[in-house]
Every structure is written in C-alpha cells, then in structure tokens.
Amino acid sequence: MDRVAAYLRQHQQEHLDWLIDLCRIPSISTKPEHKGDVAAAVRWTRDLLARLGFDARVCETGGHPLVYAERCAHAGAPTYLVYGHADVQPEGDLRLWDAGPFDPVVKDGKLICRGAADDKGQFLVHVRAAAAWLEVEKRLPINLKFLIEGEEEISSPHLVPFIQQHTDLLRCDHILVSDTGMYADGWPTITYGTRGLLYKEIRLTGPKHDLHSGGFGGTIANPANVLAKLIATLHDADGRVSIPGFYDDVTELPPAEREQLRGLPLDDVQYAAGLGSPRVCGEPGFSTNERRWTRPTLDVNGIYGGYAGEGANTILPARAGAKVSMRLVPNQGGEKLSAQFDQTIRARCPDTVRLEILDHGVCDAYVAPLDSTPLHAARRALRESFDREPALIRAGGTLPILPAFKRVLGADSLLLGFAGPDCAAHGPNENAVLEDLDRGAAAVARLYGYLAP
C-alpha cells in the first residue's frame, strides 16, 4: 500500500496532464453541435484505460456513446463497477469565467475549467488508483469494471436500457461512484443517501387570447390569478406540503442517524448569508441538514404567463403555468405521489379555466446500507489518506442511476466525493482542489486494497 501511495505522489503531474487533456474536450452533451466532442471524450477515456491494460471498448447507446472497460484480478476476487461520466454542462455566461471554460488553468492549487470537478476529475481518481496498482504490483487487488457514460448531464436517457441489455456484462458486487462532494474543504465525505424527484408542470388556459383588463377584468377568470391561488394552497402555514397523503409513507430517521447528522457543524446564520438569503426557513422541528437531506419538499421552479416586459401592458393573460418539483425521501413512491398530486390539483382548480398537468420525470430516493463492507473499507481508506475521520452525509439532490443500479443489477452504491463545497459545479469557474484529488486517488487505491479478500 505504501508503494502504491508513493507511485501516486511521484506521478501527480502526469495524472494532472491526463485531466487537463480530457478537460480540453468540450463534451457538452446537451448541445447537438458538440456531439462529436462527447464521442471524443469517451474515446479518450477508452484509450487511456486500454493503455493501462484494461479490455476497453466504446459502446453505442442510441444517443451519446459510453466506454466499458474491465480487468480481472482472479476468479475469487470481488467485482466492483466504477461509474462516472465524461460529459459536462454548458459553459454558461462566458463573461463570468476568468479563463475559457475549456482552457484549463491551475491557480492557487486549483484546476479551473469545466469538468474539473463534475465529473472528469473525480472519475479519473479511480483510473489513477488502478494505474498505480498495475504499475507497482502488476495486478489489481479486485476485479474492476468501468462504466463511463456521455449522457449524465442530460439525465442519462439511454443508460438504463443499456444496463438492462447488458446485465451479465455489468454484474458486480458493488458500485463505486465519485460524483458527489465533500462536506467541507479537505473533509473526506461518504454520501450514503440521495433524495428522489417528482417533476410536474401545471398549465392553465382561459380566454382564447389576451384580453384588456379594463374591459374584461372581473368577468373572465385570469389564469395567472388562479395559478397563484393554486400554488398558495400547496403549503400550510408551517411550510409543510399540503397534498393529502404526502407524508404518509415518510419514515422517521433512527435516533442514532439523526444524532449523527445533527452533530455535523453548520451555522444557520453563516449558511444563509453565504447564499445571500436573510435567514433559513423550513419545516419546524428539523435541523437545516435534516431539511435539505432527509425531508420531502415541494418547490415551484418557474412561473410563466402574462406580460413581464418593460413598462405596462394591462391584460388578462390567456394562459399561465408553473413547473413544480418535489424531492422525495426513502419509502415515498414517486408514482403514487404523482397520482396524488394530480388529484389534488384537479380538485382545487376551478372550472373557470382549463387545466393540463404534464409529467417531466420521476425517480425514487436511494439510501445505501451503513454497515456494508465497502463502506467500512472506505472509512478506513479515507481516514488514512486525509488524516481525518470522514463525514457521513446524505444529499438533497437526485442521482437516478443509483436506484436503477439497485433495481437492475441488485448492487448497492458507495459514493465517495472529492469536490469541494465551493467547486462551482455547473457554474462559472468550476474548479477542483488538486490536493483533494491527489489524496482522493490515494484513498481509492487504499480502498481497492482493503476490498480484496
């Protein structure tokens, strides 16, 4: 293990060059004009894994391709599948970047570019760990597979069908994912749970076209007024979601887990100030971490309708709408809540407007077991590489691939995040702290060793 760690220290620059080369590829999966760049990033990853001695191939999916690679240690070794993605978010407002998003810059110990943290820098941590073992020991301590896709930033539309069609190829004992973050700078973190997601759109239509508010106001229902009233009914005075049955299947956290989450340092005043908000709010009786990780929520993501330009335009809009997302927690069934949401909105909507409800996706929550062998091995590996006991957290966001892996492959996932809380993923000046990536590679190399029988 010491020789593997020493190799990683000696080859930090070489491995940084890998990351810089990959980050130069503008693999933006949501933009059709970058289709070739996504394929190039996938091929680059395939070529690197092949050079290291993996059996690596590019697989077509019907959308952007992915790379699959494998290398066996021996027949009796456990098999682990590393999942990551080589596609990235769009650049955003270029005026907010200190340099070109795809012109990697090292500054103050950070690599600044799109993909540095999400997810090129993180999945390469696993490649670096494998390279160290293969160079030092000429073998891997475990059977290792890689599945690096090109569609994560567009919700992986072709990944689940690929997994379903290749269950034997992808069969494994556990999934390893590094696409999450650290609780604080330099604090190694294991994320053991994510929330689910239910996304809806409410569309209201009134008159056949916009009307003069003076001539018709008070006689024809205003869809924007009706929408505002509908949205106002979705929470009670305490901020709890008012859809009947919304909390019926929510299970309370075990006392030990609740105590552990409450023990993580978080100053509510600083938390709100850092986000530019006057103060925190939310469901009574729960800490901020519990609210953002372990409680279900309902939020309006956008409202549209009527005139919102400069100056005045006194109209009754012909239509109005809102997009609404619900974050779900374990044991809440997305399909069940979808029906309950629709039923509630239809019951509360007056017949003076026409109502349409659109579905924009549903995904269940995921929680990994806290007593698994991989989790215990990861805690040891992180502690030794970072010289600090790792934080165990849940995440408020959604990773649809986790419940899919569990459902199709029957395998749980271990999430090891090495992106700092200020990494600006999806934003301008996305960055990764190089020391954290280096220590992350050492931790993953140790993890591979500790997972060996």
What does this structure look like?
The structure is a single chain. The protein has helices at 2-10, 12-23, 35-51, 120-137, 159-165, 167-170, 213-216, 223-232, 255-262, 268-274, 288-293, 334-348, 373-386, 401-409, 434-451; strands spanning 55-59, 66-71, 79-85, 105-107, 110-112, 143-149, 174-177, 189-194, 196-205, 211-212, 297-305, 315-316, 319-328, 354-363, 366-367, 391-395, 413-417, 431-433. It is of the alpha+beta class and 453 residues long. The chain has two domains: 2-194 and 365-451, 3-Layer(aba) Sandwich (Aminopeptidase); 196-250 and 296-363, 2-Layer Sandwich (Alpha-Beta Plaits). Strands 1, 2, 3, 6, 7, 8, 15, 16 and 17 form a nine-stranded mixed beta sheet that branches. The chain has a four-stranded antiparallel beta sheet with strand order 11-13-9-14, with helices on one face. A hairpin with a 6-residue loop joins β1 and β2 (66-71). α1 (2-10) packs antiparallel against α15 and α4 (120-137) packs across α15 (434-451). The two termini are 15 Å apart. The model has no long low-confidence stretch (mean pLDDT 96).
Brief description of this entry?
This protein is an alpha+beta fold and 453 residues long. The strands form four sheets. Strands 1, 2, 3, 6, 7, 8, 15, 16 and 17 form a nine-stranded mixed sheet that branches. It has a four-stranded antiparallel sheet with strand order 11-13-9-14, covered by helices on one side. Strands 4-5-18 form a three-stranded antiparallel sheet.
